[in-house]
Each structure stands twice: as C-alpha cells, then as structure tokens.
Amino acid sequence: MGGPEAISTVPGVDMSDLSNRKHEISQQLLQAAEGIGFFYVTGHGLPQEDIDAAFAMSAKYNNLPEEIRARHVKDKSNAAYILGWSERRVSAGRLTHGMLMGLDNPRMEGLWPTEEECPGFKKHMLEFMHKAAKVTDDIMTCFAIALGLPEDYYKEPMDPDAIDCQTAMYCNHYPSWERKAYREGTLRRIAHTDFEVLTLLFQRQGETGLEVCAGKDTTPKEAMQSGLWVPCDPVAGAITVNIGDALQYWSDGRLKSTFHRVRMPRKDEYQGDRYSLAYFANARATTLFQGPQKKYPPITFSEILAQKKKYRKSFMKLGEDEMTDEEYFNFQKNTAIGPEFDIAANAAALQPAV
C-alpha cells in the first residue's frame, strides 16, 4: 500500500456571475473541497479596498503598546475556543501574536479595545466580518447545491446575526525576523487543521509561508513524515479558503479538512512583517452537525470543543507557554494538531450492538 495521494497545486475557482453560473461553480468548489480541501476564490465580490482597509486596522491594533493589548488578553482558564489577544514567543523573539474576535455578541464583552485605545477598530472590523459572511454564504450555498441539499440548508445554522453565532476572525501578526537568528525548521504556526466550518484567509502579496499538506486523507503522523507540503502563497484578488473539521463532519467526510502550517521565511525571501486575516465561519452554538447520509451521530459545536480539549490534553504534557525553546522546537517538528474530534469514534457510536 502506498502513502497518501499527492496533490501538487492549490486549485482556483472563479465565482463571478454566480447567479448565472451557480451549478457550474458548485461543482468546481465541490471538486476542490473533496480533493485538497484548500482553494482560491476570485470574483467573490469583496472589494480589495475593503480588504486593504481591514489589514490597515489590524496592523493598527497589533502595533499598539503591549500594555494596551494586554487588557484584552485571552482567559486561558476558560473554554477551548477563547477570544481575545494572545502571543507565542521564543527567546529570540515573538513568533506570532494577534486578536481573535467574535461578532458583536456576549462572547466579546470586555474584549473590544475602546475608542480611545484604537479608534474605529470595532466598527470597522464588524463591518468587514459581515462582508466576509456574505462570501461564506455564497460558498456554503454552492456546497448545499453540490451535495444535493436545499440551497438555504446552511443559512439559518450559520446566521452571523444570531446571538449564539460562534464565528470569529483572527488578526494575525507575524513580526519581522530581519536581522534575527532562528533555528532552521522553526515554524511560525505548527501543522494543524481548522476545527471550524470554513476558513476565509486573507493574505497580502509577497508575504509567503503558508503551506498545505497535499496528501489527500492524510493522518497527523503522515503530515509530519510525508514531506508533501506545497505552498499556498497569496494570489492577487483571491481569498484563500479551506474546509474545517466541522464541515468535514457535517458533509459525512466528503469535504476534506487539511493540515497546513506557516513556516519561517527562507534566507532569500522577504523577512519582514507578515499579516493575515483568518475569518473562521462557524455555526450557532446549538447547531447539530450531522451529514445528510448520517454517517456520524449528531454533535454540537460545544461537544466539538470538548473533544478538542481532550484530544490536546492526550499528547500535550505542557502548555506551549511552559515549554523551553528546545521543547517547543521538538513539539513543532513532531506534532500535527487535528482533526480536533474523533470521527472514527463517533462513527463507531452509530454501529448496532453485537
């Protein structure tokens, strides 16, 4: 038996003229999602000037004095899906930091910067998130069509205006490593899958480093040993989209949640600041995830989080912030986090007793 099937490139789908090309686009999206699980979309209707303005606001927040950002820090004693500001650093410098924000519901209480701290941040980012929600709705409508479901199948469960909507967006800042030394093989973000429904990733031209494990149906061990990593660099005018664990579950395993990572820049590459905006489209807290074929039993997002937390505890003896540089480097080198819940165990739960 061979290893996982290699896929050499990340496909692109043009979504322009969606109303007249809906079924064609639906099939193209399905093919991409069943294959590598990552794809670029163009013709999505979100103006580049709005994306650029969101990046500018993200940079404005992420470059505030540290004592201000610390007022919005994550409460790590809370649940697995924690909003607020966080960072990860090694002795040579900070690898990444940023703000994970939800929509304007009770989960964000006390976490928004004030107008005095970062004027316009809350208003602007909420407006941008709702524009990203429209793109998400278009893609999810196409998936519903391709899977033989009613067009509005995902609309109410993923309503961004619902008070219990779990959608969030991460304003990533990977600080410059110009004139800094780092160990070869260090990652800015370790190999993982996203546990949400769908991720819309906004990248800036020239700021590379995102890689996708191009082995279809790859296991965590294979992700770290196969070497089947392909670049997923920014494409002008395109949004990078990937399937999350929850949608893989929700589609009876047809749509693929894929391992990806962010590597450090090579010596001959741009070494400066890298920014990205990761819009994690999610369902409402009470939504039951179960595919049309009922391959797996129904599960709520809260239960997904509980399994995620249990899964991480099973192999993480120390928190990332408690590790030495050497421990963290080895953790990066040997770990792929995902999927964040046990699909096999959930499938077994549906089997009749013998």
What does this structure look like?
The protein is α+β, with helices and mostly antiparallel strands. Helices cover 30% and strands 22% of the residues. It has 9 helices and 17 strands. It has helices at 18-34, 48-62, 66-69, 121-146, 220-225, 245-250, 301-315, 325-334, 343-348; strands spanning 5-6, 12-14, 38-42, 84-90, 93-102, 168-174, 187-192, 198-203, 210-213, 215-216, 229-231, 239-243, 260-263, 274-281, 288-289, 299-300, 336-337. It has an 8-stranded mixed sheet. The longest helix has 26 residues, at 121-146. The radius of gyration is 20 Å and the shape is globular.
- Count of separate DSSP helical elements: 9
Strand order of the largest sheet: 2-3-12-8-14-6-5-4
**Secondary-structure-derived class:** alpha+beta
Measured by DSSP, the beta-strand proportion falls in 15-25%
Q: What share of the residues lie within helices?
A: 25-40%
What is Rg? 20 Å
Low-confidence stretches: 347-354
Distance between the termini: 31 Å
Number of E-state strands: 17
Tertiary shape = globular
Write the element-wise H/E pattern from the N-terminal end onward. Answer: EEHEHHEEHEEEEEHEEHEEEEHHEH
The description of the largest β-sheet is:
8 strands, mixed
Q: What's the mean pLDDT score?
A: 84
